[in-house]
Amino acid sequence: MTSVAPAVAPGSASAKQPRVRFAPSPTGFLHVGGARTALFNWLFAKKFGGQFLLRIEDTDRQRSTDESTRAIFEGLEWLGLTWDEEVVYQGANVARHYADAHRLLETGAAYRDFTPAAELDRLRAEAEARGEVFRFDRARVMLSEAEVASKLAANEPFAIRFKVPEGETAWDDLVHERIAFPNKDIEDFVILRSDGTPVYNMAVVSDDIAMRITLVMRGDDHISNTPKQILLYRALGADEPQFGHVPMIHGADGKKLSKRHGATAVGDYQHQGLLPQSMLNFLALLGWSPGDDTEVMTLAELVEKFHVRGLQKKAAVFDTKKLEWMNGQHLAQIPIAELAAIVAPMFERAGLATAADLSARAEWFHGVLELLRVRARLTDEIVAQAGPFFTDTVEYDPDAVSKLWRDANAAAGILQATHDRLASLDAWEPAAMEEALRTLAESLGISGGKIFQPLRVALFGLTVSPGIFDVLLYVGRDRSLARIAAAVQFLKNG
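The structure assignment produced for this chain is given below.
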């Protein structure tokens, strides 16, 4: 039996320093599933004082692009999942993959297969016609030394296949505990194609050995690759890493997450107003639990709480509403100066203010953000709600007008009295404004709400806004009084 003993617990005196890797293929965007895998590996490395490495698996030259590679870098950097050593490009190591495959050939762990591709296609088709699953038959291709020499002399192309031994291949998975595969169910697999290029499992094992990887943590769709890779490690005389296979991410319908469920690229969420710490927090809870009811965590808290015991076997569900809720929680907690730095470019793109303007009025800008962030789940929503604090005039929402200014004459009278009372104030601060308007309501024999609601429409154009006295403070004295006067004229002009 071929098996892998569990490694020593990270952090113990005899444990190797953990070395983990994230190994995406640059054939598209950074998927949220890939980002979650990267995060788990990064957390493991930081928790146990190890290294997090990045390998770009670019051996598929037809599908790999520089644009996808950049998207991977940018996505990881936005999330703060920085790597500890130079990026490894798998395509640069093909010579080593080739040499390792030939070393297995020399030791008898692999053999040459001269079967033409057309012949393999014919055998597969015949098996399908019989309703059978095609399995490669080693006996059909085993040749004598003389026959091999003759074919080599004739320059006949050949693939190299790994000779799967008898028994079973098992390992203690960090997530799924013991997993075993009968070797009879693993056909002799190609490790080097007839054109000399390595197959996935050969390249991965060769690179992981060279990078001294101690733990391979990846999606559980790779479980079927693991016994083949373990066999290659052993045949190459290398120590096997630990393996951990985390659950897949599903949409709300229980199917594997895809574009039909909405955005699946990390970059999309970056541009939809999410904070990176929110995305990290949300991704961490897709297939992992801290062991208590804690949901909102900073990256430092995730590192502190992370342990492989919390990794779950069942598929995780990507809930966009939960992600937005999570983002709202982080928006409320992030230091205001940090939030200002994030959203300032968004305000500039929206044409509300320049970065220089916001920097010059930093205290005021921070105050506005404090009002808006508690009402937002996305940074985009903060910008969308901020207009009345930056513009000289506001547009009145028709629903607000019909609801709160239904009696135009009465509303105009109340707003005129409100304007006059506020204009008489010496101090433009919330306590004085509240006292003045509540006293006005008493003198008019109406409730405070009968003043505050029409005033809200005059100042903000809507039926909802931050606290009315905070709005007055941050819109400012002159602009507030001008808006109230403009509302009175609007109502009088019908």
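Interim note for the steering committee: The longest strand covers residues 51-56. The chain has 21 helices and 13 strands.
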